Amino acid sequence: MADDLLARLDSAVATDHPSRQPLRETVPASSAHPDATAADAPSHRERWPWLAIFLGVQFLWGALLFVPGSQEYRPIVRALPYASAVALLAVYGTRTVRARGPGGTLLLVLALALLGINLLHPTSQLQAGLGQLAFQMTIAAPMFWAWKGVSRPSQLRRLLWLCLIFNAAGALLGVLQVYDPERFMPPQFSTLGLRLNELYVESLTYVGRDGTRIVRPPGLSDQPGGAAASGALAVVLGGGLSLGAANPRALVVTVAAMGVGLAAIYLTQVRSLLLMALAALAVVAVVLFRRGQLKTAAGLAVTATLLAAGAFFWARSLVGDAVEERFATITEEGALQAYRENRGGFVAHTFGELLDRYPFGAGVGRWGMMQVYFGDPTNLEAQPIYVEIQITGWLLDGGVPMWILYGGAILFAMIGAYRHARQRRSQELARVALIVLAVQVLIVGFSWAGPAFNTQLGLFFWFLSSALHGAASSREPTPPAAGRTSP
Description:
By secondary structure, the chain is an all-alpha fold. 63% of the residues lie in helices and 1% in strands.
């Protein structure tokens, strides 16, 4: 069965807390998923752990690029996470489920339709625009099938544990790449990046304690700084999963993952992801506070603060003053001022000059990797436009209507997660919803520092949002709470 792999994982970190669901749920036929019957034979959906495989592809694809000579096949390897999102449409897309789809799905469809319509814009780069449309469809694809593949809160919890392990592994590799680069660095970095800019790698390095140049660790990727995303997800997932961990072994795993994730962020020197990871945990604490769980909220805040400080001093001891110089501006100037002096210029440029010039879009295919791969450099009327943050990309692709449609779909997803996190009918559902909400906050926040919804982070956002809807639509029985209440 598809849950066997995840069930074994769950058993390794299972808690003896009495309010936990049993590891292998036995759901009566009357309360099973609406499209299931006792006579059903296992289908291809149940025989294979498709969701576990999907998440493995999402977070472990970069391991293939550690094979010498693999850069020749980099475009194929890099396309695997997005291709897998489309491939699972064939597995789950035709499944009949007696429930409505996730909120915001219609707005997401309209946003994709608007992107397609804007291919007719006179300054669209047709080939690159078609690539961007196909790319965005792969990113949004999990929204249309994940809710059919996840039918119980406990199943989603196990998937979140799997995500934590994968991302903690990527963050740990990033730490090791600084500690022993000769052994743990990938054999070569992105040939595309090097071709676009011969100073590509050098621009993403800093000077260490002994005067040597340290490449910002790529983790399980071939991009300098790539370990930061794994680190941020490890921090947020670890913090969320630690809340219901009554078993000491599970608690140690989650706290260790948070510490490793924070260390990876410091060593990659990506300040925006540090701030958003801590902000996501702050949102979790606020929700707990509003639920009256003051002790749990305070424990999470204290743990995150101590880990952030400890990881900072450890990273500083490893690489020297470079870490302190990079992050000191946050405490000296404040997070908002630091943002204003860096990414804030792109926000001002977007709402100022670009909004005036392109209120209904600048044409599709004029920014991002699709423009790099498929753009026509001889088209002087549709020259590339540099994009640093997500709202700029949406403005170019569809103008203010795109802000409304895509932004509305995101808002619907986050409101749904918040409502599930606040409900008291199912503790299991509230726990996983709160973790999903925290990851959503992380990704949306990072979109103000980079084009997050033009990357795998956007794909992961839609997967979790849809999966949570499927878990919330289940009829899994919830045992009465006993002892300490979990979020």
